[in-house]
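Hello K.,

You asked for the raw outputs rather than the summary table, so here they are, unedited. I folded two proteins back to back in the same session to keep the settings identical. This is the first:
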Amino acid sequence: MYPAVSAGLTRVASAVGVSLMEISVVVLVLAFIWIIVRAVRRRSGFFPCLWKEIKLLAWAFVWFYAAWGLNYFRSDIYARTGTVSTPYEEAEFHEFLDEFAEQLNANWCPAGQADPDAVEQYVKTWYAALPAEVGLCRPKDWQHPKRTLFNRLYSAVGVQGYIGPFFDEMHINRDVRPLEYPFVFAHEYSHVLGVSNEAEANFWAFESCRHSPVREFRYSAWFMLLTHTAGNIRSLLGDEAFEAWLGTLRPEILADLEDSRTHWRNLRWPWLSRLQHRFYNLFLRSNGIADGTKNYGQVLRLVLTLSDLHDHEQAVETPETEADGQKR
């Protein structure tokens, strides 16, 4: 049901340049306050006021899940593609790290000004070419990033982009740097197309950008994969081996990494960032994302399993293979 719902909602939302999601939240908050003020003025009592507040929240809850939230309960990417997660193998992982460093070094380029139209055209074309079996919706011409009204708040909590579930709108933080923009666009657009899992959204963003003929897009893919997985790689290699691996990267890449960290660190409000992190972690866990916010970094498992960067055997059980006891 989501493809039809999304197409309709985004078509309606396309008539307005600003975020209808943000406007809806403001209206809900004002309505919440007005119910309390009206109850006080009319002296209607606590429980009638509480009942009205509950009904208001219930309608918002229903709207959220009917418009987008049901995507949290769909089959995961492994089930949709008929694959199983590749178990960790040290030799294969080190082979991947060699490729990772090689691609980062080969695709580095000075950050220019990102062309939003060029990014959008390429990403939509790439998603449109995916086979239906992966379970993503078809891109629509009228689906564009919305202008955010509270951009400073998103930077304060380190949010580079998000999907507005009430109208399936995508939002990209205006503080996103040019080298980050292609990846962030592709990540958020995958949510519009029905992806709820953050690791899967990172995977599609990585795959789309790394296949681009544009060098800046390819560098965005590999650089953003590094920012999302550096902690995972460090935990697998250990501090000394991780630092040695970083030493194989061009100094310009390490400078970009430090610039990115400094850029977002300077924009953060630490207390608000911690509060948002805890709330979003709880929200993801309550909607079937067991790893919570750690799910962002699980993209490495998807890359190692589903990417064509290297060859490996995938154990996939099908009715045919089960019959003869073989796996392929």
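The second followed immediately with the same parameters:
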Amino acid sequence: MKPIELLLEKYWIVKEMDEDNYNKVRSELDEQTQGFIKEKLGYKMIANPYVIKLEKIPGKPQAFMGIQEFTNKLEYLFLCMILIYLETKSRKDQFILSQLIDYLQNLQTEMDLREVTIDFNLYSHRKSMVKVLKYIQELGFIKRYDGDENKFADHIENDVLYEVTGISKYFVRNFTSNISDCNLYTDIYEKEQLGLDQDKGIERRQRVYRRLFTENVVYPEDKDDLDFLYIKNYKNTIEQDVDRILDASLEVHKDGSYILLLDNQNFKNTFPNNKAISDVVLFFNTIIIEKMKNKEGTEQGIFVSELEFTKWIEETKNCYQDGFSKEFREKDVRELSSEVVAFMQEFDMVRYHVDKKEYEIMPIVFKMRGTYPKEFKDL
């Protein structure tokens, strides 16, 4: 991968864990690409003897940008509290899990938490803690020296020995203002003003580039959407940048814009990808396209009832399951529907409207579909 692709793909590159890519970025990131990062994306890059990190701030926060491994607020809370604990430690310091647990319990009292009460006597809380410990090990915050945190999930008395690497201090970016009085992410979003230059032209340019490089698709909110108008007006310039930086192409349609990667490019959070659910969704898109031939929708998408949507998933299973992985062949329609919806929402292919119990089929669905080759059908 090119250095810019590594920086965009990975949260960061830790030298001790990935020295080859660390050295690749340090030696091969050219001035032209650095200029693009600074001028077009407005991103800052941290580079020191331990880690290289591109601070990827979204142009518009989206639900899928959360930590995919986490499933509840408690896990985010554990992460924040562990970060506070690690601030009290120096690089190479060691600690045992029971010490961390005691610290978190004391910190809970000091913080006067109201929404969540931590109780490590509960299996679910220990299981969430294990999930966070594994996550920060994968990122390189800590190294495990002895023990197994999985056993802690089974019983609170099981201990584990860890060593601090010191890179956790680079996890949270430096904010340009005090965010202690912020209650929602939108408060931070507004206060920081995305960290962009106050000149409206530069601000819009960097926001649009950020959206194209971090969102799966940029939809126009209405006919006067300024971000989308910018994409259309500066299509040629953006197209040249995308081709030069990623060897990819920019697709601009009246109902959405997105970056289309080459067949040999394999980023982690792209569609389609190597996950089995990705194939299922491609076939589901085929069913949707067939069903929608004579349906009319709004400028944004087409609405279908929850019942009808589920029936289409059942039809997809009946028509195409011979090529599904064993895992998805064995799922019932309810389980399959839940996973399909979650995956499609992550890529902004569908939006669920609770008040009407309807799904909004977004335009990107009609750009990608899946079919079996003739040889498969003849088997």
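The longest helix spans residues 123-139.

Happy to rerun anything if the numbers look odd on your end.

Regards,
P.
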